[in-house]
UniProtKB/TrEMBL annotation:
Top-level taxonomic group: Bacteria
Biological process according to GO: DNA transposition
InterPro entries linked to this entry: Transposase_17_sf (IPR036515)
SUPFAM superfamilies, per the entry: Transposase IS200-like
Entry protein name: Transposase IS200-like domain-containing protein
A single GO molecular function term of this UniProt record: DNA binding
């Protein structure tokens, strides 16, 4: 038997795909993990459309360095989620390298040094098929749960749009204007490829791309995920019932009392004008920042950690005054 065939058999066994489904019985799963960064640790990871495009493409290039399979992912403005198959060491190394390169991107593009240094990364072992399906759907519906007005299967910066689609089709972000994906960038010069894809790798010559975006199906194991759910109906059933509280608390990166970060920034700006007559809080002293934080906490009851961050305070230093 070829090595590729042995590997495929091992993956199927580890994910429980070779076990008949029996209603009410759990199927053991191994070497499967849910990773996420702390959404309250930084003000932003992806600031604009270009950051998201570069972040999506970065997944492809970083993942090729590790012996892993990506089952699902989502990039949010303040955090990210991955559901991965592989050894814990390989999966951890992939996530750490992805975060490291994202931090470098933030420094190069926005001038913010070591923005993601020491950012908490949570990991939870997935040990059965029910938890695997729940984790996959929780990741996919994360944008909707965060208050964004978008369907889980139409959010462009995740794998949600890939599963159970007609062959060759994928939900395109609005900025592609309906362009179809094509094979690679062979019609462009080396410098043009390097500038568009932020890499000097020749690999992009053969991958599916649309303008500046590598087709996410190039790095997401769509077929495996569809086999995990078995049917489209089952997939949408779990999308409907999956809840944050069904996951281990270690993987929940934001309190259910946390308001979407975009809304909290807007509330902060409104209070800056109301309390101090300014539109920017950079020149506020510590006493003024604490006053702003307490006003936000009293009025909106969001998490103290989030409030401290948007007010430019160190949570550990002021948490006793915000609880």
């Amino acid at each position: 038997m070829k090595n590729s065939d042995k590997l495929q058999r091992r993956i199927e066994t580890d994910l429980g795909l070779d076990v008949p489904f029996v209603k009410g019985e759990r199927i053991p799963v191994s070497d499967c993990w849910h990773f996420c960064t702390d959404g309250n640790a930084v003000d932003s990871m992806f600031r604009d459309e270009q950051d998201f495009i570069d972040g999506m493409n970065r997944i492809y290039f970083v993942s090729r360095r590790f012996d892993i399979r990506i089952l699902a992912h989502v990039l949010m403005d303040t955090h990210l989620h991955f559901v991965l198959y592989g050894s814990l060491s390989e999966c951890t190394a992939f996530v750490q390298e992805y975060v490291r390169r994202t931090s470098m991107h933030i420094e190069n593009r926005h001038g913010l040094k070591k923005r993601l240094k020491n950012i908490p990364v949570n990991c939870q072992r997935i040990d059965n098929d029910l938890y695997l399906k729940t984790a996959l759907c929780y990741v996919i519906k994360n944008p909707t749960a965060a208050g964004l007005k978008v369907s889980p299967t139409d959010y462009p910066w995740s794998s949600g749009a890939l599963y159970f689609r007609s062959q060759g089709l994928w939900t395109s972000p609005v900025w592609t204007y309906g362009q179809y994906f094509s094979h690679g960038l062979s019609d462009k010069s080396f410098r043009e490829r390097a500038a568009l894809m932020k890499t000097k790798s020749p690999d992009v010559d053969s991958v599916l791309t649309s303008d500046k975006l590598i087709f996410p199906g190039e790095y997401i194991e769509v077929g495996l995920v569809e086999r995990i759910f078995r049917t489209c109906r089952n997939f949408y059933y779990f999308l409907g019932i999956s809840r944050e509280e069904d996951l281990n608390p270690l993987t929940t990166v934001a309190s259910r009392m946390t308001i979407p970060i975009q809304e909290m920034r807007q509330h902060r700006n409104e209070l800056l004008q109301e309390l101090f007559g300014v539109t920017n809080g950079n020149k506020l002293d510590m006493i003024q920042r604490l006053k702003l934080a307490r006003a936000l906490r009293s009025r909106y009851r969001s998490s103290p950690k989030q409030i401290a961050r948007v007010c430019g305070l160190v949570y550990e230093e002021v948490k006793g005054q915000l609880e």
